[in-house]
Write a structure and sequence with these properties.
With 364 residues, this protein is of the alpha/beta class. It has 2 domains: 258 residues, 3-Layer(aba) Sandwich (Adenylosuccinate Synthetase, Chain A, domain 1), CATH 3.40.440; 85 residues, Adenylosuccinate Synthetase, subunit A, domain 2 (Orthogonal Bundle), CATH 1.10.300. It has 10 helices and 17 strands. A 5-stranded mixed β-sheet has the order 1-9-13-16-17, with helices on one face. Strands 7-6-5-2-8 form a 5-stranded parallel β-sheet, covered by helices on one side. A hairpin with a 2-residue loop joins strand 3 and strand 4. Helix 3 packs across helix 4. The longest helix is centred in the middle third of the chain and has 15 residues.
């Protein structure tokens, strides 16, 4: 499951839906990390996942591959929230996952206040840059307190950043809690005997190689990492029925008047480190570009389009292509036109915050 846009496509609800149709599933996170915010509503539970996979509300475990960052504080905080709702999530983590520290978070926020390239403010980009500079702290290191203390001191010196005293105490406390938790387990390699559901992060238009630099994420959000793991997946390409973007960076169609409803379930609409949440008409040119930059997605027939938030289109079904505005007669007609433009045979739509995936009836 991969987002086609700038993130916020509805990936959480799609993964949750796929999990409900599976027996013996395992959600695999293969890109990004703890900076994700995947919103799932199931029953009376409304939760945004950052450190666990979106199947957790159904008791489905998660595997964190080596491509993902780990936030010990975030894991402990989210684990407590889920437990309070009666959920007992299980998380397998590759020992090679980079760990985000309090120093990375501080550096991320300071740096983006200056360059304004865009950030979630949780240290993801800073962590990967630090790793590239050889100041490495991996998940396996949390299980050796002596090594952890040595590396934290070197990372602190690397940034020349002094946090408040309680932040370090909290970080170390969370590291200790994780290493003694039954809910979090070190695991080298994806466990067998599961049906794998790959949960993407951000979107193809934020991919570090395909997006519009510098307003990208430090991650490959397409199929690159999945293929390196040895899998050739069926790909669900997810987009809202309209275009969205959080914070800075290019976005088309903002000059066009629209009547997209306000989503009462939207999280993080404005403020925070990501900045303003923007929305406008769907731009098919951007979707075409995003898909074309991923060779596997471009060439494999094993893919389907998923269009979410169909219920938020009010009175008119419009999109743009080659700079011109096109109209559709209905939601089904809209989905079929987008599907055909993208050269995809199979499509689904989702209505409402907990909507199931409804197959699009072909008009051909």
């Amino acid at each position: 499951m991969i987002g086609c846009g700038f993130g916020d496509e509805g990936k959480g609800r799609v993964v949750d839906c796929l999990c409900s149709q599976s027996l013996g599933a395992l959600v695999v996170r293969f890109s990004g990390g703890h900076q994700a915010g995947h919103h799932v509503i199931r029953g009376n539970i409304d939760h945004v996942f950052s450190n666990f996979g979106c199947g957790a509300l159904q008791g489905i475990p998660t595997y964190w591959t080596r491509y993902c960052t780990v936030d010990p504080v975030g894991i402990v905080n989210e684990l407590e929230i889920l437990r309070a709702s009666g959920i007992k999530p299980h998380l397998f983590i590759d020992p090679r996952c980079p760990v985000t520290t309090l120093y990375d978070k501080g550096q991320n926020r300071i740096r983006d206040a200056h360059n304004q390239h865009g950030t979630c403010g949780v240290g993801f980009g800073a962590t990967l840059q630090r790793e590239a500079d050889r100041y490495s702290l991996l998940f396996a290191d949390l299980y050796n307190p002596t090594i952890l203390q040595i590396k934290l001191k070197l990372i602190k010196d690397y940034y020349d950043f002094i946090p408040v005293d309680t932040a370090l105490d909290n970080f170390l406390s969370c590291c200790d809690a994780i290493t003694h938790s039954d809910n979090v387990v070190r695991k080298h390699g994806i466990p067998g005997d599961f049906e794998l559901i790959f949960e993407g992060s951000q979107g193809l238009l934020l991919d570090q190689d395909a997006g519009f630099f510098p307003h990208v994420t430090r991650s490959n959000t397409g199929t690159k990492n999945i293929l390196e793991l040895g899998y050739e997946p069926f790909v669900y390409l997810v987009t809202r029925a309209y275009q969205t973007r959080h914070g800075n960076g290019p976005m088309t169609n903002q000059h066009i008047t629209h009547h997209i409803k306000r989503n009462p379930y939207e999280r993080n609409n404005a403020g925070g480190f990501q900045g303003q949440f923007r929305k406008t008409l769907l731009d098919v040119d951007l979707l075409m570009y995003a898909i074309s930059r991923d060779e596997y997605i471009r060439t494999t027939p094993n893919k389907a389009l998923v269009i979410t938030c169909m219920d938020l289109i009010e009175g008119e079904w419009r999109y743009t292509l080659d700079g011109a505005i096109f109209e559709a007669a209905s939601g089904n007609d809209f989905a079929n036109k987008i599907r055909r433009h993208l050269g995809i045979q199979q499509a689904y739509v989702s209505w409402g915050p907990t909507g199931e995936l409804v197959p699009v009836k072909s008009t051909e």
